[in-house]
Amino acid sequence: MSTRLADHGRLINKAKPVSFTFNGKHLRGFEGDTLASALLANDQMLVGRSFKYHRPRGVVAAGAEEPNGLVNLGKGTRFEPNQRVTTTELFEGLTATSQNHWPSLEFDVGSINSKLSRFLPAGFYYKMFMFPRPFWKHVYEPFIRKSAGLGKAPKDRDADTYEHFHVTVDVLIIGGGIAGLAAALAAGERGARVLLMEQSADWGGRALVDSPEIDGQPAEEWVKSAIQVIEKMPHVDMRLRCMGAGIYDHGYALAYERLTDHAPEDEGPRHRLWRIRAKQIVTATGAIERPLSFAGNDLPGVMLASAVRDYVVNYGVSVGDRTVVVTNNDDAYRTAITLKKAGLEVPVIVDARSEIAGDLIDEARDLGIRVETGKGIAAVKGGKRVTGVALCAQAGEGAVLEEIACECVAVSGGWSPVVHLWSHCGGKLNWDADQAMFRPDPERPPTSHDGQGFVATAGTANGHLFTAEVLGDGWAAGRAAAKAAGHTKRGGQAPDGQDAGEGPMAPVWLMPQGAAHALRSKAWLDFQNDVKVSDVQLAAQEGFESVEHAKRYTTLGMATDQGKLSNINGLAVLSQSLNDEIPNVGTTTFRPPYTPISMGSIAGVARDELFQPIRKTPISDWANENGADNEPVGYWRRPYAYLRPGESVEDAVNREVKNARENLGLLDASTLGKLIVKGPDAGKFLDMIYTNMMSTLPVGKCRYGLMCTENGFLMDDGVVVRMAEDTWLCHTTTGGADHIHAHMEDWLQCEWWDWRVYVANVTEQYAQIAVVGPNARKVLRKLGGMDVSAEALPFMQWAEGKIGDFDARVFRISFSGELSYEIAVPAGQGRAFWGALIEAGEEFGVMPYGTEALHIMRAEKGFIMIGDETDGTVIPQDLNLHWALSKKKEDYLGKRAHARTHMASADRWKLVGLETEDGSVLPDGAYALATGTNENGQRNTQGRVTSTYYSPTLEKGIALGLIHKGPDRMGEVIEFNKVDGTTIRAKIVDPVFYDKEGEKQNV
After folding, report:
1. Left (φ > 0), alpha (ψ -120 to 50) or beta: where does 676 sit?
2. What mean pLDDT, rounded, does the chain reach?
3. Do 682 and 726 touch, CB atoms closer than 8 A?
4. What is the average per-residue pLDDT within 143-152?
5. pLDDT band, residue 137 (cuts 50/70/90)
6. Which contiguous run of DSSP H or E holds residue 877?
7. What is the C-alpha to C-alpha distance for residues 689 and 891, in angstroms, rounded to an integer?
8. Residues near 709 by Cβ (< 8 Å), separated by ≥ 6?
9. Residue 878: how many CB atoms within 10 A of its CB?
10. Beta bridge pairs of residue 822
11. Is the pLDDT of residue 117 over 80?
12. How would you write 416-484 as a 3-class SS string?
């Protein structure tokens, strides 16, 4: 049975016991334990059930590569599924339950699947669930939905908080083993700004377990001194419990820090997501030991050899009194030696190699440990835990030579460098046949925008398995990263290390190598997803020769494992089945995050009232204090109208429209998008983004522009301002600012990446106020400052200067059809400027107006509104905006689409004005009815209303609509449906209802 040792456990504090529960059982561990070590210390070998066959599963590893030990952690508001027992630090009151079983872990009805495994091979669902067809809806789908997934989804609201950190560094070092520490020392002493992170709670990695000599002292002492030196470097930050989650383009990386998982009673966020920009990145992420494949290698008690000695050295836990070590390399002998020195029995070391020699082998034999060479495991004995093994000849087919009783099987199939982060951003790999591993190719690193590599690997992550090589490689990587980041200060020499000599390993992908199908069908590659050697061979037999196809057919390396333990063994079996070399088969795609991260950390503070924060302009508070009836517009709340006591919304809107037409109106237009587009290629860029020409716009002038998607549909509009030879200001709709900014960046980064253009969203940096009406110029003259006369500032021009005491950009544009100035001032001056306009405008009948008055006035002028006249299927030609489509430009987004037959056809719904015969208001969205019915018996339509209002100016209802061949049907009367089933008649008229010649706006 597994138990606690009396005199081992460097990470635990035996003076501080910790109580916890597992499946309702009250158990005890110590401070410093992981949940895995505490469970093993309490002889809890069974921790879960596999996904497909519900086979018994125990702890296999000691780190993030653990595939089996996934549990539900916590209760209520702190419940979280699929937490690894190997990375969960024990704390007082921890509550865990196992997953994927019913009714209990010990007795699981789903285990019947294991008995039926011959009928449930890889990919069976692709064939079985197709027939008979009616079964899908009533049998298969309900069954699949009930069976799918691991763990349970939380039901209660998350009680914890989360946060994001943004940081820029010269060198990011991921991994806090001896390679990472050496890299940090080298980069730090050269003056680089360094961020060093380690996913576990301790620095030093495997070196502290295996204890090689570094610079003539034990590894533990060297690590302590290295940490002390690094901590004194003012420009180096160190973070424990911080996992490098992903590496992306342009030196961008994500890291996941667990702040209070180990101490939930502490105040503060639970997790932190780091968003990092680094000039250079060093991944010192170590290597993962591979299991060996043989019959019964999934039983609880079969563990990685390195994990077995981790539990002995770090936590003082013995997995069993008798441990059989199975290996193809010398490193596993360290486990046998550690166990023997701890007073535990090692009946035999089963080495698949026929010839062996080395210091570790000699030491094991000197300790009296039996070593069998050229042997393999025919089968593991036991049910819910290991009881013994059957030995066979590795070169044979599995004939049992001897049975040996044991409680634990420690296996080692070699080491696989953790290349996930290197591969996230395009780093390529080479196959190292001598060590049977994929290792990073330094000639093909992830490259940045300048074509230069920005990621390097170090230590065992780079395929170096000996201490001296690991330290030298880490030191060199840190030094090179600091130099590439611009720090050339000379530094010291790399530390030196010493290890026991080791002989070559032998690639072993199956035990025994000639195993019959009966053994191959019980030899597991992926413990979590129940993928066997025979499954991968079946995939190859059925034609799934691509590694990606085989992965999906068998589910090898999917879910939370992501190939950490199963990948190389699976690739090797596939390559042998295809009679090809492993590097020719290739690897599956490594995708971020390296290990799962919490949804809460992704969201950060974006929850509750901050999930979609309400954005406010500098004038919002004044508006709310003065009767604003707000409506949502994108993320903003804009005044729909300003209500006076006892006034209805309709009355307020009508009052505001009339006042703006007759006296002076003020509109808070701060929410309009404002994008600065700057650079030598900015004009060329805008010519592609807009349908009309922007590069020829003179400095100081404005031009109305349209933007289309590549499919030709109208997506946004606004006034573009030429501010300087290389600078334009693009106004967008309120709801379109962020979207259009992203749209521009998408094209710049993905298609025109070599164009010298910079786009900045300055929407919230300015307050913008529309001063509208016959008295607009008068109030500005009263405030004083720059000349705003018609001669000095004609329509569709702009100028910069002072209005009163305020720094202002004055744009002579109009969306109301009246004399209008849109004035932008720095956001910090917005409220004061508004107040000054209100005060100065008293004698001119000043009155603020809201969005509904704005809409009515623009409709009276026949101006379109994105989102009203457009719906994602409308093109500029539908809105009679042919004049805004440049015929001089060779190309722009949407031009080719506009040439399509159905786009260029005259047989389309087009914009017109509409007036009812009785002067009433047409229903919003009403359809224009046509003769006949469609196949569904519904009335045919020939258009629809896009905008409809009561016009206080014209004292009647007006509307804009898209009508089939509308401009060719002026004066025709057509019918529109109403909600109550009746119809209303309206005449097709010119869409410009007011001041068609534009005299009022040009005054």
Report:
1. beta
2. 94
3. yes
4. 77
5. confident
6. none
7. 10
8. 715, 893, 894
9. 20
10. 770, 811
11. no
12. EECCHHHHHCCCCEEEECCCCEEEECCCCCCECCCCCECEEECHHHHCCCCHHHHHHHHHHHHHHHHHH
Instruction: Report how far residue 340's alpha carbon sits from residue 338's, in angstroms, rounded to the nearest whole number.
Output: 6
Q: What is the pLDDT of residue 880?
A: 96
Count CB neighbours of 903 within 10 A: 17
| The one-letter amino acid at 751 | E
The enclosing H or E element of 268 equals none
HSE-up (13 A, CA, CB side) for residue 563: 26
Q: Give residue 670's identity as a one-letter amino acid code.
A: S
DSSP for 552-580 reads HHHTTT-TTTTTTTTHHHHHHHHHHHTTS
How does residue 506 score in pLDDT terms, banded at 50, 70 and 90? very high
Helix/strand/coil for 258: strand
Residue count (the chain)? 1003
Contact 947, 855 (CB under 8 A): yes
Token pair listed for 147? 């069976």
- Residue 992 near residue 985 (C-beta atoms within 8 A): no
CA-nearest of 728, 738, 723, 726 to 690 is 728
- The per-residue DSSP string of 346-369 comes to ---EEE--SS---HHHHHHHHTT-
Place of tokens 């529109």: 976
List, for residues 547-587, the tens digit of each pLDDT value.
888 888 888 888 777 878 888 999 999 999 999 999 998 88
Q: E strands along 658-803, which residues?
A: 664-668, 673-678, 702-708, 714-724, 727-732, 758-761, 766-772, 798-803
Cβ neighbors of 845 (< 8 A, separation 6 or more) are: 659, 662, 663, 664, 775
Instruction: Measure the CA–CA gap between 198 and 591, rounded to whole angstroms.
Output: 20
Quote the tokens at residue 218. Answer: 């034990």
CA dihedral sign, ordered 572, 575, 581, 587: negative
pLDDT value, residue 150: 79
> How high is the pLDDT of residue 904?
92
DSSP track, 304-361: EHHHHHHHHHHH-EES-SBEEEEESSSTHHHHHHHHHHTT-B---EEE--SS---HHH
Tokens describing residue 528: 């979590």
Q: Within 13 Å, how many C-alpha atoms sit on residue 638's CB side?
A: 21
| Comparison of pLDDT for 805 and 609, the residue scoring more | 805
Query: Could you identify the residue written with the tokens 């229903």?
Result: 923
Nearest to 481 by CA among 730, 278, 290: 278
C-alpha 520: how far from its chain's center?
A: 38
- 610 three-state secondary structure: helix
Cα dist. 713→618, 718, 875, 877, 878 in Å?
Answer: 34, 16, 5, 10, 10
pLDDT in tens, 659-714: 999 999 999 999 999 999 999 999 999 999 999 999 999 999 999 999 999 999 99
Quick one: DSSP state of residue 698? P
Looking at the DSSP assignment, which residues form a beta bridge with residue 429?
Answer: 440
Q: How far apart are CA 446 and CA 440, in angstroms?
A: 10
- Give me the pLDDT at residue 746, please: 96
Q: What is the pLDDT of residue 643?
A: 97
In the predicted model, what is the mean pLDDT of residues 92-119?
86
Higher pLDDT: 608 or 24? It is: 24
* 3-state DSSP of 96-107: EEECCCCECCCC
Cα 178 from Cα 598, distance rounded (Å)? 28
Q: According to the model, what pLDDT value does residue 132 have?
A: 82
Question: For residue 679, which amino acid is it?
Answer: G
In this predicted model, what pLDDT tens digit does every residue of 197-210 receive, in sequence order?
Answer: 999 999 999 999 99
Pairing of strands 939-951, 956-964: antiparallel
Give the orientation angle of helix 305-315 with respect to helix 332-341, to 10 degrees.
40
Among residues 504, 134, 130, which one has the least CA distance to residue 327? 504
